[in-house]
Q: What sequence folds into this?
C-alpha cells in the first residue's frame, strides 16, 4: 500500500517527476506509472490495485489529462472506491470542461504564476488530513477487495482485534470522509457473521463436552459401588470432573457472552448504515443491539439514531405504498393521509401507537386529501378520476363520487368558507365543485400548460391559484376568469403553492427548482425567491404554520426545511430518515406539530421544541451566568449559582424554583455542594468566602467561612459530611470542620497556581485537586500530605476533577480540550487523553454506576461553537455517540442525578438543561418514535437464529400477528 497514487498525462511527465521527488522528500510512499506502454488488461489490473492500495489519489489537471481516457478510468476507479481525490491544477481550464466530480472539489494551483512551495505545503496538508481514518479506509478496502476476489471465502474475513477496529471505524463513518464503500460494509458485516458462526461452533463443542462429562460422572458413580477401596481416588476424580464441568460451563457462558457482544456490535453497525434511508429501522436495530448486550457501540448507535432527527416524535405506519398527501383537521389532532395504495387513512396524532383508520372507496392512487374548514368533511382526489367527500366522524362517503375530470385527479382544496372544492387534473383543467350538491360550478377552468399538480385558495377565497408546467394561473373565483397573464419562471412542473396568511403574496416551488419563488398577488410578478441549501432537489411541498411566521418546505432528498417567513432565513432542517422526497406537508391547528409524508411513512415533528436535542427533558432559561450546579442526594432538588450572587433551589421534576433565592455572598457563585444527608448546602464565591446553608429553612448557617485571600473556585464535602474542602485562586486548599465552622489545621499547599477544583474519593481517604499549574495532586486526608508526586498529563491548566464511584479512577478535564482517566493506584493514565472537544473541558462528572463520564466544554472569551457535552464510555475510553448540543455558551457545570437517570448542565448563557441519561428511557423513546416492531422478515435478516420477539413490548407483536398490542 502507498500514501499517494499520481494520475497524470504523459505530456505532463516532467511536472509529475518534480511532484514525485518533492513528495518522496516528505517520506511519503508514491505509486506512479512511469512506463509509456499501451494499456492492457494486466496493466490496468495493476493500476487499479495500486489505486485501491493508495490513501490519496492526486490528479494532475491539465489540457491533456482531462481528455485522457486512461486518466478518466483511473479517476472513475478511485471515486468508485471512495478514494480521497486531490486535483492539482497545472493549467487554467474552464470548469465546465472538467468532470463534475473534479470541478466540485477544492483545487490546489500549481500554475506557472503560483508559488510552488506554498501550493506544495497545501497539497501535503490535504494528504495528511485525518490520515488515520484514510489509512484505515485503504486497509479495509484492500482486505475487502481480496475477500471479494477470492469468492468471499470466510478464511479471508477479519478476526479479533482487526474486526473490532473495523466495526469501530464503520461506526464513526457518519461524520467522516471518504465514506465506506458498499463492499467494505458488506465485508465487515460478513466478517462479524463469520465470527458469530465460529463462536456458535465453539459453543456447540463446549456443550458436547458437558454431555460427555455427565456420562463420565455416571460411569464413575457405578464404579464407586464396585470399588469402595478406591474411594479416595474416586473422590479426587469427582473433584477433577466437577472442576472440569465448572470450567466448561464458564467457557460456555463466556462463549455465549462473546457471541452476544459480537451480535450487539453487528446490529449497532447496521443501525448506523440505515440512519439516512430507514431511520425507524435504525432505531429498532439500535434498541435490539443494546438489549442483546449493553456495549458502547450499542449505546452510541442508539444515541446517534435519536439525535438524527431531533424534533421527530413518531413515525406512522399503515400505508403499503407511497404517501402523496397529508392534511390536518382545522380543529383538533386528526390527520388524514392519501397513498398510492388507494387508501385514505385517518389518524389520532395524540396516540400515534393506536394506528390509523382506513377509508376505502378509491380504485387508484389517492393523490390529494383536504379537510373542510369546519373539519367535518374530508375530500380525496384519486388517479381513478374521482373525488370522494367523506364524513370524518363516520368514515363514510357523503355523496356519490364526484366525476368530471377526464383523467387523474392530482389535487384538491376547499375554499375558506367551505362551500366550494377545487380540483386539478392531468387533463390540464381545474374544476370548481358545489360541496353541497356535488355538482360542477360552471365549465372546467383551462386549459393549463400541462397537468395541474397543485391548487390553492387565497385566504379571502377570491383567488384560486393553479400550478402546472412552468406556470401558475391566478383565477378570479367569482368570474371564473384569469386575473392576469400566467406567472412564468419555474423550470419544470409547479408542485407546491402556499398563500401568505395576509393573501398578499403567493409562494411556489417546482420539482426541478433550486429556490422557492415569491409572487406579488396584486401585481402578478415575482418579487423574490428563497434559495435552497445543501442537497435539496426541488420544492415538492410548502406549508405555513397557523401564525404565518414559519414556512416549511419539503425537498426531493427527504428533508424538510423551516424558514422564517419574514426574513426568509433558514431555521433549520428536519431529516425524515427516509431516502424518498417529501410530496406533502401540514401543520397542526396549534402549530406545535408538523407532519410530512415520505415513501410509505408519515413523520410527526414537534416544532416548538426549543432545543434541537431529543434528550433535553427540561430547559430552564435563567437570567445570567449559571456556572455552578449541585444535585441533592435524594435527587428531588438541585441548586444553581447565579451571576447576581444568589443561589436558587429548584424542584428537579417541575423545574420550578423552591422558595426565595439564597443571598449572602457579595460576588457571583463559583461552586456548590450538598452534604451527604442533603440538609446542608455549601457555596463558594468570588468574594473569597464559603457559606453553609440550611436547605430546609433556606437560611445561612452562621457567618461566612473566611480564610482564603482570593476567589473560592471549588467546594466538596467528605463522604461522612464532617469535612468540607475548598480550593482557591490563592493556590491553597482549606479543610474545614463543618460542625465547628473552623479550619482543620493549616491550608494545604502544593500547587503553584490557582486551584480550580477539589473532589473527595467515595471512600473518604483521598482528596484530589487540580490547578492552573497543569497538575493534579492526590492528597492523603488523614496525613494531609500529597500521595506522591503531582500528576502531569495536560498541556494546559486543569479545570475539573472527579472520582469514579469505586474510587479506582480519577478523571480530569483540561483547558487543552482533553479528558484524562487516571488509575488511582498507579497514578498513570488508563488511556491516551480522550479527545472530542475542540476547546477547554470545564466540567466533568461520573454516572452513579461509574460506567459513563460526562464532560462539558466551552470558552468564555472569545466565544466558541463547541459548547457541548460528551458522554464517554469509561471502560473503553470511547465517546458514546455524538455530543449533546443545547447550550449557546460554555458548559461550566455537569452533574448526574443520584439515580443516574438525569444529567444536569449549566452554562454561561444562563440556561440549565436536564438531559435524559437513562438507557431504558432511550429505548422507550426510540420505540415511541419508530412506533412499530421489527417484521419477521427484518428479524430473519438481521438477527437470524435469535428467537423472534417484540423489540417494543407495548406495540403490536409482529412475531405473533395474532397477539394485540398491550
A:
Amino acid at each position: 500500500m502507498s500514501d499517494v497514487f499520481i494520475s497524470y498525462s504523459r505530456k505532463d511527465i516532467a511536472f509529475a517527476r518534480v511532484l514525485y521527488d518533492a513528495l518522496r522528500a516528505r517520506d511519503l510512499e508514491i505509486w506512479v506509472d512511469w512506463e509509456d506502454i499501451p494499456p492492457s488488461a494486466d496493466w490496468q489490473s495493476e493500476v487499479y490495485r495500486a489505486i485501491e492500495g493508495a490513501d490519496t489519489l492526486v490528479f494532475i489537471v491539465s489540457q491533456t489529462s482531462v481528455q485522457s481516457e486512461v486518466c478518466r478510468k483511473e479517476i472513475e476507479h478511485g471515486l468508485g472506491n471512495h478514494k480521497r481525490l486531490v486535483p492539482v491544477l497545472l493549467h487554467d481550464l474552464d470548469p465546465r470542461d472538467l468532470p463534475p466530480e473534479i470541478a466540485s472539489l477544492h483545487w490546489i494551483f500549481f500554475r506557472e504564476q503560483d508559488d510552488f512551495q506554498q501550493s506544495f505545503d497545501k497539497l501535503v496538508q490535504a494528504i495528511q488530513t485525518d490520515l488515520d481514518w484514510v489509512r484505515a479506509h485503504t486497509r479495509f478496502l484492500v482486505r475487502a477487495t481480496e475477500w471479494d476476489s477470492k469468492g468471499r471465502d470466510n478464511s479471508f474475513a477479519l478476526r479479533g482485534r482487526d474486526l473490532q477496529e473495523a466495526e469501530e471505524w464503520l461506526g464513526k463513518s457518519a461524520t467522516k470522509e471518504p465514506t465506506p464503500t458498499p463492499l467494505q460494509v458488506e465485508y465487515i458485516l460478513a466478517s462479524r457473521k463469520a465470527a458469530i458462526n465460529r463462536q456458535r461452533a465453539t459453543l456447540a463443542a463446549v456443550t458436547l463436552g458437558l454431555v460427555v462429562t455427565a456420562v463420565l460422572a455416571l460411569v464413575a458413580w457405578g464404579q464407586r459401588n464396585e470399588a469402595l477401596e478406591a474411594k479416595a481416588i474416586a473422590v479426587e476424580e469427582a473433584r477433577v470432573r466437577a472442576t472440569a464441568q465448572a470450567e466448561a460451563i464458564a467457557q460456555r457462558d463466556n462463549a455465549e457472552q462473546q457471541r452476544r457482544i459480537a451480535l450487539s456490535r453487528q446490529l449497532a453497525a447496521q443501525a448506523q448504515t440505515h440512519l439516512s434511508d430507514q431511520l425507524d429501522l435504525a432505531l429498532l436495530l439500535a434498541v435490539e443491539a443494546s438489549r442483546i448486550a449493553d456495549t458502547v457501540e450499542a449505546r452510541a448507535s442508539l444515541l446517534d439514531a435519536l439525535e438524527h432527527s431531533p424534533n421527530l416524535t413518531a413515525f406512522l405506519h399503515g400505508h403499503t405504498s407511497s404517501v402523496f398527501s397529508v392534511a390536518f383537521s382545522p380543529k383538533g389532532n386528526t390527520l388524514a393521509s392519501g397513498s398510492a395504495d388507494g387508501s385514505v387513512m385517518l389518524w389520532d396524532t395524540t396516540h400515534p401507537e393506536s394506528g390509523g383508520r382506513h377509508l376505502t372507496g378509491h380504485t387508484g392512487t389517492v393523490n390529494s386529501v383536504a379537510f373542510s374548514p369546519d373539519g367535518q368533511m374530508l375530500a380525496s382526489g384519486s388517479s381513478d378520476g374521482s373525488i370522494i367527500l367523506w364524513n370524518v366522524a363516520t368514515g363514510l362517503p357523503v355523496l356519490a363520487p364526484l366525476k368530471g375530470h377526464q383523467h387523474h385527479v392530482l389535487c384538491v382544496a376547499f375554499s375558506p368558507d367551505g362551500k366550494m372544492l377545487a380540483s386539478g387534473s392531468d387533463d390540464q383543467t381545474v374544476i370548481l365543485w358545489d360541496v353541497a350538491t356535488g355538482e360542477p360550478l360552471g365549465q372546467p377552468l383551462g386549459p393549463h400548460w400541462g397537468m395541474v399538480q397543485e391548487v390553492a385558495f387565497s385566504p379571502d377565497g377570491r383567488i384560486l391559484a393553479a400550478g402546472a408546467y412552468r406556470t401558475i394561473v391566478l383565477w378570479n373565483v367569482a368570474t371564473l376568469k384569469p386575473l392576469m397573464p400566467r406567472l412564468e419562471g419555474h423550470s419544470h412542473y409547479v408542485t407546491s403553492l402556499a398563500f401568505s396568511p395576509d393573501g398578499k403574496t403567493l409562494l411556489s416551488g417546482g420539482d426541478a427548482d433550486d429556490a422557492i419563488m415569491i409572487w406579488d398577488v396584486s401585481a402578478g410578478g415575482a418579487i423574490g425567491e428563497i434559495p435552497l441549501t445543501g442537497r435539496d432537489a426541488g420544492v415538492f411541498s410548502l406549508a405555513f404554520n397557523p401564525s404565518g411566521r414559519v414556512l416549511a418546505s419539503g425537498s426531493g432528498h427527504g428533508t424538510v426545511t423551516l424558514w422564517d417567513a419574514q426574513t426568509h432565513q433558514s431555521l433549520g432542517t428536519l431529516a425524515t430518515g427516509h431516502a424518498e422526497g417529501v410530496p406533502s406537508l401540514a401543520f397542526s391547528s396549534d402549530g406545535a406539530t408538523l407532519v410530512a409524508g415520505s415513501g410509505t411513512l408519515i413523520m410527526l415533528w414537534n416544532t416548538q421544541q426549543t432545543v434541537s436535542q431529543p434528550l433535553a427533558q427540561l430547559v430552564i432559561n435563567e437570567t445570567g451566568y449559571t456556572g455552578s450546579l449541585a444535585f441533592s442526594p435524594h435527587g428531588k432538588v438541585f441548586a444553581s449559582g447565579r451571576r447576581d450572587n444568589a443561589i436558587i433551589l429548584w424542584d428537579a421534576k417541575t423545574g420550578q424554583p423552591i422558595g426565595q433565592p439564597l443571598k449572602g455572598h457579595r460576588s457571583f457563585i463559583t461552586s456548590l455542594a450538598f452534604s451527604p444527608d442533603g440538609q446542608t448546602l455549601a457555596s463558594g464565591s468570588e468574594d473569597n468566602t464559603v457559606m453553609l446553608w440550611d436547605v430546609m429553612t433556606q437560611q445561612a448557617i452562621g457567618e461566612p467561612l473566611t480564610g482564603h485571600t482570593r476567589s473560592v473556585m471549588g467546594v466538596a464535602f467528605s463522604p461522612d459530611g464532617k469535612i468540607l474542602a475548598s480550593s482557591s485562586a490563592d493556590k491553597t486548599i482549606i479543610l474545614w470542620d463543618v460542625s465547628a465552622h473552623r479550619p482543620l489545621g493549616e491550608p494545604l499547599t502544593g500547587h503553584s497556581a490557582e486551584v480550580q477544583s477539589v473532589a473527595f474519593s467515595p471512600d473518604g481517604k483521598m482528596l484530589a485537586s487540580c490547578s492552573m499549574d497543569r497538575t493534579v495532586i492526590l492528597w492523603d486526608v488523614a496525613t494531609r500530605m500529597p500521595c506522591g508526586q503531582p500528576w502531569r498529563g495536560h498541556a494546559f491548566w486543569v479545570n475539573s476533577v472527579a472520582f469514579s464511584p469505586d474510587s479506582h479512577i480519577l478523571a480530569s478535564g483540561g483547558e487543552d480540550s482533553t479528558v484524562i482517566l487516571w488509575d488511582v493506584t498507579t497514578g498513570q493514565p488508563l488511556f491516551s487523553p480522550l479527545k472530542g472537544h475542540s476547546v477547554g473541558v470545564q466540567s466533568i462528572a461520573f454516572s452513579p454506576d461509574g460506567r459513563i463520564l460526562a464532560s462539558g466544554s466551552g470558552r468564555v472569551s472569545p466565544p466558541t461553537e463547541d459548547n457541548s457535552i460528551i458522554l464517554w464510555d469509561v471502560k473503553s475510553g470511547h465517546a458514546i455517540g455524538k455530543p449533546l448540543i443545547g447550550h449557546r455558551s460554555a458548559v461550566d457545570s455537569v452533574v448526574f442525578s443520584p439515580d443516574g437517570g438525569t444529567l444536569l448542565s449549566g452554562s454561561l448563557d444562563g440556561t440549565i438543561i436536564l438531559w435524559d441519561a437513562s438507557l431504558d428511557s432511550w429505548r422507550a423513546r426510540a420505540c415511541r418514535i419508530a412506533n412499530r416492531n421489527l417484521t419477521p422478515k427484518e428479524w430473519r435478516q438481521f438477527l437470524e437464529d435469535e428467537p423472534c420477539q417484540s423489540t417494543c413490548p407495548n406495540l403490536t407483536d409482529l412475531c405473533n400477528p395474532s397477539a394485540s398490542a398491550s
